Amino acid sequence: MSFFEYLKIALPQIWVGLMITFRVSFVCLLIGMALGFPVALARVYGPKWLRWLVTGYVEVFRGTPVLVQLFLIYYGLPQFGITFSPFTSAYLAIGLNSGAYQSEYFRGAIQAISGGQMMAARSIGMTRMQAIRHVIIPQAFRFAIPSWSNEAVSMVKISSIVYLIAVPEMLYVAKLLMSKYYNVLQTYLLVGLVYLLVIGLMTLLLNEIERRTTIPGLEIAKRGS
Amino acid sequence: MPKPEKVIVKIENVHKAYGKEEVLKGISMDVCEGEVVVLVGPSGTGKSTLLRCINQLTIPDSGKVWVDGVELTNPKTDIDKARQHIGMVFQDFNLFNHLTTLDNIMLGLIHVMGMKKEEARDKALLELKRVGLANKSENYPGQLSGGQKQRVAIARSLAMDPIVMLFDEPTSALDPELIGEVLTVMKDLAVGGMTMICVTHEIGFARDVCSRIVFMEHGEIVEEGNPDKMLNHPDLPRTKQFLGKITELH
User: Tens of pLDDT along B138-179?
Assistant: First the structure.
């Protein structure tokens, strides 16, 4: 079978796998953001008990391999009678893991905003919540974009580990193809190429978002020159 | 100059310490309506802390502060509401970097005063005009010079209809040639009858418009009086020495 004949068979299946890769990455990034942003705010502005609580969450999920977290949720929890489907387990494990990392990116962004911004907001009579909402958050989101882009890009790659619990994403499809056609080199090269292409496109998109949300007059400061 | 009667800011025995470092050692002071008070003293003397203790951005350890008859140090006071009418201008401007100059001024009008957008826009434009920057309404802070930034910051405070304005070294972060434009705005305010407390070493400003110079050192008021007395024949040699030195420099 020539390489092109193989492509004709493999590509449609890889495409299906890629869609699942996207789905897992997208859902996990969203869960991670929904968790990470409030956690970051809690760590900076929350009361002491809450800071402790969320710091515990962040340290546990950053301090253990995501694979361990995935296996604990998928294979471990059923021992307590809690059973999740492979997809749900994937969303939970990687989403929670990403939340811990994203909270650190957002925390860094919040702390990069000078204390003077909060003081100025309070001095015109804004409440703490108003200041956070109208002054801190809009700036923190912008500051977080570069590191968040990094998280999005690595998510697409990290999500491949869910093939271990039989979520049929791209790497899982590749395994199936190989067991059928024994085309190790071609299959992995192909899959690698698809990842490279996808991530290249994502990077362009994210750079464009970063460019468009840059605050006029602050471009130079951002470049650090 | 006839002494104004109504006390706007009353500070009574205010103490503040950071750890073991006692920054304010029992400051008491009255500022009357229309008075312009200039606080001077070596750095680290607690002038800025005192200013922030007035609007409770820094909470004093003990002592009381009243503004316009309301005791701000009383925990029952709605401090957000009170702060709205105490303007504050910072050394490093602290404009909201993600907003245009117009939006910087509108933010408080909309979210604190509850104005409608159009109404807030009109008022904000008026305030920008007052500081001579109506043509910069759509610019972002990053696109302005330091002097322009500080004028916008003053406009942002003025928009909230303050009963007193606090200035925390408003010209210290500016290039020398930009100081004048900010001082002009401040002088106009003073002449217009605004009650002002200014931490500044601009002795020219103090001589021309202020009603009282307060010399602070080591968390205490050393001497105070009208500019003529303080600059020309103060009671204490230390006052003479310090004011003499900064008069030479500014």
Answer: 999 999 999 999 999 999 999 999 999 999 999 999 998 899
Give all strands of the β-sheet with B70-71 in edge-to-edge order: B21-32, B7-18, B62-67, B70-71
Task: Give the structural domain span for B33.
Answer: 7-249
- Give the global pTM: 0.88
Interface check for B139 against chain A (CB to CB < 8 A): the answer is yes
Whether chain A has a CB inside 8 Å of the CB on B120: the answer is no
Question: Does B42 map to a domain?
Answer: yes
Quick: pLDDT tens for A149-165. 999 999 999 999 999 99
CATH number, domain with residue A52: 1.10.3720.10
Closest Cα in chain A to B156: A124
Q: How many domains does chain A have?
A: 1
Contact of B97 with chain A, judged by CB distance below 8 Å, is answered with yes
CB atoms inside a 10 Å sphere around CB B60: 24
Residues of A in contact with B142 (CB under 8 A): 215-218, 221
Question: Looking at the complex, does the CB of residue A165 fall below 8 Å from at least one CB of chain B?
Answer: no
Indicate yes or no: CB of B142 within 8 angstroms of CB of A114. Answer: no
Q: Which amino acid is at B217?
A: E
Q: Which residues contact B194 (CB under 8 A, 6 or more apart)?
A: B34, B36, B162, B164, B165
Q: Domain count of chain B?
A: 1
Q: What is the ipTM of this complex?
A: 0.92
Going by C-alpha positions, the residue among B10, B30, B37 that lies closest to residue B196 is B37
